[in-house]
Amino acid sequence: MTELESEGHTVMIVHQDSEYLGLISVMDVARAESKKTLSALKDMGIKRMIMLTGDHQKVADAIAKSIGITDPMGNLLPEDKVRAIEQLKKEEGRVAMVGDGVNDAPAMAKSTVGIAMGAAGSDVALETADIALMADKLDNLPFAIGLSRKAKRIIKQNLVISLGMVAILVPLTIMGTIAIGPAVVGHEGSTLIVVLNALRLLNYK
């Protein structure tokens, strides 16, 4: 019984009258895709991943060990999760939190980016989150992060293209170096380039 509890199991003793018949052991298990997802996140440069849970610390330790998380924090109430997120923000600057329950919502609201598991998530968690993974597949998380990073890069590229073209065309037009017609064509051409550049996101996998 002690060994099972140390491995994160919740153990129930079955007995009838004064006779002990045996033990029933139950345990929460991690999602099947958890380990693969965490590995993918590490490959993307996300080095520190922490588990915040209201479950017993032994349960948190066992699950964390099975999926490769080195810093599990158990026995947390919703307000404890909020304090943990606030501390992490002081240490790291930016913190993303993935959750699906009512107890996760306050901490998600405090995080830099809150990510809710859509299909299994509570209404409160979905309303609080900045991102909702509607397919309820944890392995969509690396995809969402990768897509966000690429979108950010493309936005910066498009700003450089559009503002750069304006910065070139306006002075040249004022000085009379080029006529209005070619300037308009150049501006509209840069707009087309911006649109085509943004469409590259459709091919992201």
From TrEMBL:
The keyword Metal-binding applies. Keywords: ATP-binding, Magnesium, Membrane, Metal-binding, Nucleotide-binding, Translocase, Transmembrane, Transmembrane helix. It is found in: Membrane. GO terms for molecular function: ATP binding; ATP hydrolysis activity; metal ion binding. One of its GO terms (cellular component) is membrane. Its main location: membrane. Pfam families: Hydrolase. It is a multi-pass membrane protein. Belongs to the cation transport ATPase (P-type) (TC 3.A.3) family. Type IB subfamily. NCBIfam families: ATPase_P-type. This is Uncharacterized protein. It comes from Cyprideis torosa.
